[in-house]
Amino acid sequence: MKFAIQSISSLGAVLLGFLLLANVGITSAGRGELESLTAIEKAIITETIQADGTVVEINELTTLVKSQLVVDSESQADLPYNSTLSKLEVLEAYTITPKGEKIPVAANAIRTVEDDNSSGAAMFSDQKHKIIIFPKVTPGSKTYYKTKLTTYKPLLPGYFYTRLIFSPSVEIRSYEYSLSYPEDLKLYTDIKGVKQTKDEVVDGMRQVSYTYQNLQMKKKEQYQVSSGDYAPHIYISSFPSQEAFAKAYEERIKDKFIITPEIQKQADEITKGLEKKVAADPKLDLKKEQARALYNWVTRNIRYVAIYLGDGGIVPHDANSILRNRYGDCKDHNALLITLLAAKGIDATSALINSGSAYTLPKYPVLGPFNHVITYIPAWNLFLDSTDEMAPYGTLPSDEMDKPVLLTKLAKVGSTPKPKKEDSETATGITMQIEKDGRITGKAHTMYFGSAEINARYKYEGAETTLSDKLVKNQLAKFRQTGEGKITTSYVYDLDKPFTTNTEFTLDAIANVPGPGAITVPVGLAPGELASIANDRPPEKFTVPYTCATRTVGESYQIRFPANTKVTRIPPNVSYKKAGIEYEATYSEVKNNIFVVRKLAIQRPGAVCEPRELENWKDFYQVFIKDMRGQIFYE
């Protein structure tokens, strides 16, 4: 479970930041340009840091509803706030109809609700939401609200930040942000694509203001990185660097890692007997085997429960209470694992990371894009994510590769490893018999390695339960096949053993035998990784960086035709090697048996590709799709 660092900064830095990051909708205007479904008519945020550290923010937002498609979503506003650290008041709210009539929001249409838990994850939070329900919203209407947020306590002592990101896919006609703070308070500012309109000192208070406008929307692109990696923004922080924030954060959480007698006892029990194992195999390292055992135990025994109370959005519980309760979120997983490792003399540190699509860090710390915590062992340059219950020791999921991390105990910025093609691999062997009536029976065996193994463990979890029939049906339907089959797997929760799947299947007739005809290579009940890639046609173009996969996929097939048919033609061999993309496909025929071997290896420079890289993939895709559609002819 991810997204376990909860941001509870000022409303402007959270609410409007989320609003501007949202894809509010774009449609064709019929003249070649794009037309938004809604527009931010006017946004005004006025924020004041008072001498005692209290932050008061006045937020005004006027939204123009331009299409019936968004009337339902724009008929209410959802304003989150932390009820322990702050107070939110709705000062005014109304709808302006297309005819100019102003209709106030009734008092009973402004409601306070608990944090949403519709995702199903166990979560306890003191974050609440003010819900404003606007009356008589139609296309052409405008909604308006004015709120006051008072924050009494910062996340960390002396910590103030503003993080505003302006998505290019949102029409913003007028946006103003003003900040007033004591002249002797040092703040650090990083802006991009916005205009500063004021910077002056009045009566001991420094006042700064910024404006922004975006009248030309861009459609959100497939696979694009987070808007925060490239979009206009306003970042303001009371910390001069990410390293300074790391020191303050580590100081705040260091008392959560105490090795109590209970912790020591548990660590000793988990690692019991490993000395004998290492003594019997000189290739093993005792400390590494202990770390593996401790990681596996935390992964399997600490249930994910998110608890965001007070400063719990960024501060973990103490390790001993996590051990006793046997639950916690990513911060808690990390705290317990670090403490158990320390009990065996293994030093580790917290690593703050983004588990989404953000791949860059702001110059100054504004909490985001960090939303997750994993564990780093410096001695082995090893990252561990114990919240990912399907990740074998030393393997990170693909969305955590090639990411900047803040190593808090070391007070420095680091990076997770870049993806390598051999570290995410799927290898499948398939045998198929085409029967005399055209049906196909077959078997498939697949081995998974690295991050591909993580994905497969999640995909096939429950394959040998009552979910089996649904899984088989969905897998066949994915490649437009009908039939029946059975899936068996190695134990998905045994992270120390490689994960494999075996399938047996019967496909309904897809071949007109006997008689002249042709078929492409069937997928059967195999994973069909290459077929999935073939079905994912690349976009025409990218204008911003996008996430791109590094992986290896190998598939080998033996297709036996019945005695009453004769294979007359098979596809030609294919060899492609260019710009980090290697593809080989070979075809041969021996006594009515067709042997096909296909292997695709993609090595990208990193987890993110620049727009120009798309051309390399598009060139390869035309060769690849032609081969995947190649047919075996028979009569």
UniProtKB/TrEMBL annotation:
Residues 286-348 form the Transglutaminase-like domain. Residues 51-216 form the DUF3857 domain. This is Transglutaminase. It comes from Polynucleobacter hirudinilacicola.
